[in-house]
Design goal:
The complex is a heterodimer of chains A (308) and B (305).
Chain A lengths: L19 E6 L5 H14 L2 E6 L4 E5 L2 E6 L2 E2 L5 E5 L5 H12 L9 H7 L2 H10 L7 E4 L5 H8 L3 E5 L8 E4 L2 H13 L4 E5 L6 E8 L2 E8 L14 E5 L3 H14 L3 E9 L2 E8 L6 H4 L2 H14 L4
Parallel strand pairs in A: 1-2, 1-6
Antiparallel strand pairs in A: 3-4, 4-5, 7-10, 8-9, 8-10, 11-12, 11-14, 12-13, 14-15
Helix pairs in contact in A: 1-9
Chain B lengths: L1 E6 L6 H9 L3 E6 L3 E5 L4 E5 L2 E2 L5 E5 L5 H13 L3 E2 L5 H6 L1 H10 L7 E4 L5 H5 L6 E7 L2 E8 L2 H10 L6 E6 L5 E7 L2 E7 L1 E2 L2 E2 L6 E3 L3 H14 L3 E7 L2 E6 L4 H8 L3 H16 L12 H5 L10
Parallel strand pairs in B: 1-2, 1-6, 6-7
Antiparallel strand pairs in B: 3-4, 4-5, 8-11, 9-10, 9-11, 12-13, 12-17, 13-16, 14-15, 17-18
Helix pairs in contact in B: 1-9
The chains are: A alpha+beta (308), B alpha+beta (305).
Chain lengths: 308, 305
């Protein structure tokens, strides 16, 4: 597949209407991503602010909930784009619930945040919708891990459900290896999710879903790393998504309730399967510059003019 | 009717199994830790010790909310199979996260004490000016409460802030009322309540409380709170007409003793009633010509599992 020109709806110039955008960031936000979003946001919106979630105050009184920052009511913005990770759950769920109850346009919802930060739940939800995935299991007690292995076989990938960016992921090749790891995991009262290991090529495809549009990026993993994860090194290039990729990416985003997200795909038995759906994807600045951020802002601007 | 009790321990399930059986219906118990959730290419399954769980008309889950990451996909699967569950999808996430629970109650217009949540400890003193003392101050690590303390003035709050040595994920300040607490069990439309006296700066335990008859207003608030949080069976605590706690875990024996009731009988009746109402909604997989449903309960039943 060769890189092709991706055509998006035209940016209408000189239309900086009186619209406001709030970007809520994770506690562990990346400054370069925030700067890019603010820069792009200011080109379209009259007001753009960024607030890290831990600086927000959630005030509940007499059947009314407000989100405030420096005494400003954050629920009065036209569009709110929450970019939260699994580390923000304590405040993240409360903030998203309050946003759901406001008139602001938000491209993601609370349920999408809960599900997409839970690898097994994501896989289960997509499988129920007939979206191809990989056999996965979820269990509590290491005592019954053998039954989970019956489903996936060896080797399999073990994930802690709170793990993200591939760091809480272990490849397990044998029973002995599994037993020693399970012992440690149980000590931390983690929930264990296993996934059949599929040896793909040395690459996967990240599909950025932006409403009805999809930007596909082929990612090559670092030599010797079985995870095709760009945040751990590797390279990326734009590709022309196939109709199959388009369909899977859009259906997955819709099934989880997200209009802005990314869907990671891998080729397995000549079919594309979903590896992960990201609530807070990075914009791939190193490889794509500000292209993704521009499209996110374009989409948020268009939607902020309509009622939620 | 086929009713399943999923619990962390057998002792939390036995009385319900017996009560349901005594009313002429099938009931069984499965230990939650034996359950494995499986997601395949085009289907999801609930298995126990390698065997797919047979279809049930109703499932009653007795588990701590800290198990939410496991219970939530389980509830989603049971719901997609058309099974009635006492806890609805999303209810365990609500129960596990106190700030989220309070916002859920607040947006549903259910009375709660005035509360402020934030992630930054530096703001605590500034925020406290928006509330009246005494305050209940809670700090969280992850979704777990790290410390909870009642402070009567700004000085006490200040020394509490200084005592926080570890990095916290958030804190909550809630207006605290030095009043009695009404602890209730909701079982569908039925409510069993106990009044817990507030004495010498503490509230007495449930086992030391006294039976209480809730007012019409209190009853309405309790039912609305259970519904907003997604529970048909739950424990709800009220203080001065405001909800302070909603939890699916219930101290059954304490309530039975103080209310002189066998609440498990009401639970059994409720589960049977819901199972009957739900009968037509249950989806049976691979049911060729409906044979599985017809023969499932006969001597040939094993053939159709």
């Amino acid at each position: 597949m060769s890189p092709t020109k991706i055509i998006f709806p035209e940016h209408r110039q000189n239309q900086k209407e009186n619209r406001s955008l709030l970007i809520i960031g994770s506690k562990t936000y990346k400054q370069s991503t925030v700067n890019m979003l603010l820069e792009e946001g200011k080109k379209k919106f009259s007001t753009v602010i960024f607030v890290p979630i831990d600086k927000i105050q959630i005030i509940s009184v007499d059947g009314k909930t407000e989100l405030t920052y420096k005494d400003k009511n954050l629920l009065e913005f036209d569009a709110i784009y929450p970019r939260l990770s699994s580390r923000d759950f304590l405040l993240g769920e409360a903030v998203l619930k309050a946003i759901e109850n406001s008139k602001a346009y938000c491209p993601v919802n609370l349920s999408a945040y809960q599900i997409s930060n839970h690898k097994f739940y994501t896989s289960k939800k997509l499988s129920n919708q007939g979206i191809p995935g990989i056999t996965s299991t979820l269990f509590i007690s290491p005592k019954y891990a053998d039954y989970a292995v019956d489903e996936t076989g060896y080797p399999f990938v073990m994930k802690l459900i709170s793990g993200f960016a591939g760091k809480g992921v272990v490849l397990i090749n044998s029973k002995e290896q599994m037993e020693s790891i399970l012992e440690a995991v149980h000590l931390f009262e983690e929930f264990i999710s296993t996934q059949k290991f599929i040896k793909g090529k040395d690459s996967d495809v990240r599909c950025y879903v932006i409403g009805e549009y999809v930007i596909a990026v082929k990612r090559k993993c670092k030599k010797g790393d079985w995870r095709a994860n760009i945040s751990r090194g590797g390279s990326a290039s734009l590709i022309n998504p196939t109709p199959e990729m388009l369909n899977i990416a859009k259906t997955s985003a819709k099934a989880l309730g997200m209009q802005l997200c990314s869907v990671d795909l891998m080729e397995y038995k000549k079919k594309w399967v979903v590896i992960e759906v990201n609530f807070m994807p990075g914009p791939f600045r190193k490889f794509l510059g500000s292209m993704i951020a521009q499209q996110w802002i374009r989409f948020l601007f268009e939607k902020s003019g309509k009622t939620n | 009717m086929d009713i399943l009790i999923l619990a962390e321990k057998k002792k939390n399930a036995e009385m319900f199994v017996e009560a349901i059986k005594s009313k002429g219906h099938n009931a069984s118990y499965i230990r939650l830790s034996k359950i494995i959730l499986v997601s395949k290419q085009n289907e999801s399954l609930i298995k126990s010790k390698g065997e797919e769980l047979p279809p049930y008309d109703a499932v009653f889950i007795q588990a701590r909310t800290t198990l939410a990451p496991f219970i939530e996909p389980l509830l989603d699967q049971l719901e997609s199979e058309g099974c009635y569950t006492t806890s609805k999808k999303g209810s365990y996430y609500v129960g596990m996260n106190e700030p989220y629970q309070f916002v859920t109650l607040s947006v549903a217009k259910i009375p709660i004490p005035k509360s402020i949540t934030s992630g930054n400890a530096k703001n605590i003193e500034h925020l406290s000016k928006k509330l009246a003392y005494p305050l209940l101050a809670k700090s969280f690590i992850g979704k777990n409460v790290q410390q909870a303390i009642v402070v009567n003035n700004a000085r006490a709050l200040n020394s509490y802030i200084k005592s926080i040595k570890t990095e916290i994920d958030g804190f909550m300040l809630r207006q605290f009322s030095k009043s009695d607490i009404i602890s209730s069990i909701v079982v569908g439309k039925k409510i069993f309540s106990i009044k817990r006296k507030f004495n010498n700066d503490t509230t007495v335990e449930i086992k030391d409380g006294k039976i209480y008859k809730v007012t019409e207003n209190e009853s309405k608030t309790i039912h609305s709170a259970a519904q907003a949080c997604g529970y048909d069976i739950a424990r709800i605590d009220l203080c001065k007409g405001k909800i302070v706690k909603v939890d699916p875990i219930i101290p059954w024996s304490d309530f039975n003793q103080i209310c002189s009731e066998k609440i498990e009988d009401y639970v059994a009746d409720f589960l049977i009633e819901q199972a009957i109402k739900n009968e037509g909604k249950r989806k049976i997989k691979y049911d060729f010509l409906g044979l599985r449903k017809i023969f499932g309960k006969t001597i040939l039943g094993w053939l159709f599992k």
